[in-house]
Structure formats: C-alpha cells, structure tokens
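Hi there,

I know you've been waiting on this one. I reran it after we fixed the sequence typo, so this is the corrected version. Both the input and the resulting structure follow.
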Amino acid sequence: MSPSTFPSIMNKVTICSAQKAAKRKAESYIPVKMNDERLDVTRYGGYTSIAVSGYTLLEYKVGEKTVKSLEALPVYLGMSETLSDEQIIGYFSKRLQLENKKEVSDFKIIRRMIPSGSLVKYNGFYYYLGGKSENSIYLRSAVQLCLPDEYMYYVKK
C-alpha cells in the first residue's frame, strides 16, 4: 500500500506510538505496514480511526444464542464489490471471536452492504447511518425538529 492511499482509508491519520499501543488492546490497531506480520503493533505502534466503507447485517450464534447485528466493514479490506462472502465472513468471525471470547458460529450474511448515510427505520423512527466508534454506531435523526413559534425565538438566540 503506497503512502498516498493512507488518507483515503482513514478519517484522520492517527499513528499511535508503541507505548500507547502496548497499554491498550492490540486488536484495536492496524499495523503501519499491513503486509509484514513481523511488525507488531505493541512494539511499533499502529493506526487507529479507520474509515468505514459501509455496514453488513449479520446473523450468527454465540453459544446457543442467535444474534443479529450491524457490523462496520472497514475500507482497508477492499471494495465491497470485489470481496467474496467467504472473505467477509472470515473477517467478522475472527473479529467477533476476539470480541465475545466465546465460540461464534453459523454466520449468515443477511444484507451484504449498507452504505454509510443510508436511511434506516429503527423503533418507528427514521435515522441516517453515520460513522462508528470502537463499539457503537452513530445514528443521525432524519426527523425534522418542529417547534411552536414562541420557542423559535429562543432557538434563534
């Protein structure tokens, strides 16, 4: 990966030092050189704030419990059109295995790619899919704020 492609896969280029990476979980960092597995992020540091190309709706089992979840698909995996279902399932099975610390099995892709900014309905309200933080997804309200005229004066100030 050439240095010119880094700004396109990151919201902001944040290279964390090895001291910070050693204190935090190594799984939350992406190595500076992804093709060289010898470069350990706890020793050499790594990238955080990886951009998301979209989301994937998955169904899987954790033990006996069936879980449906909306998972972020990072840009560094490649274009979603070129990714196979096996690659997507392989990425999420490895990541969710580390996250849940339990056996995760029976992966099923319900919706392969949901772009960021898509309009979704959740609990009867409409939202736009925003970005993500480490363990949550941002939703922006798609419902317009309507106020009586007497309250508009206070809002304008």
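Quick highlight: Residues 3-50 form one domain.

Best,
R. S.
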